[in-house]
Automatic annotation (TrEMBL):
Keywords: Cell membrane, Membrane, Transmembrane, Transmembrane helix
InterPro entries per UniProt: EmrE-like, Small_drug/metabolite_transptr, Small_multidrug_res
UniProt GO MF annotations: transmembrane transporter activity
Membrane spanning residue stretches: 49-71, 78-98, 104-121
Record-given protein name: Cation/cationic drug transporter
Family: Belongs to the drug/metabolite transporter (DMT) superfamily. Small multidrug resistance (SMR) (TC 2.A.7.1) family.
Protein location: Cell membrane
Domain of life: Bacteria
Keyword Transferase: no
Species annotation: Sterolibacterium denitrificans
Alphabetical list of Gene3D superfamilies matching this protein: 1.10.3730.20
Coarse class of the protein's main subcellular location: membrane
Pfam families: Multi_Drug_Res
Record-level GO cellular component terms: plasma membrane
Amino acid sequence: MSSVSFLLIIGGVLLNACGQLLLKAGTNAVGHFDFHLDNLLPVGLKLAFQPYIMSGVACYVVSLVVWIMALSRVPVSIAYPMLSIGYVINAFVAWQWFGEPLSAQKLLGIGFIVIGVYVVARS
């Protein structure tokens, strides 16, 4: 895999992870909500104009473009498993920023993910 291909994959993964974290920050800022027909428009507008959510969606859009560029260079059987790195990043950032628990069981799972991505990347 060339360095450009690798950077595109990692860039796409990081943008995707960043988008997910921004969406979570946005929902934290908005607070708990239920969708019902009577509040669909107010809640929808509140979410649509929440800055973190808008930034998260922007990250997803840029991530999509970067990912398409990566897929034009790398087989999907190599590129797609790399998305799992996003889970590793999100787990640690969510632990730090949002106070989400990072149990021994999660750490073990993260270890398996890292090993799996390494094995796939080496193939």
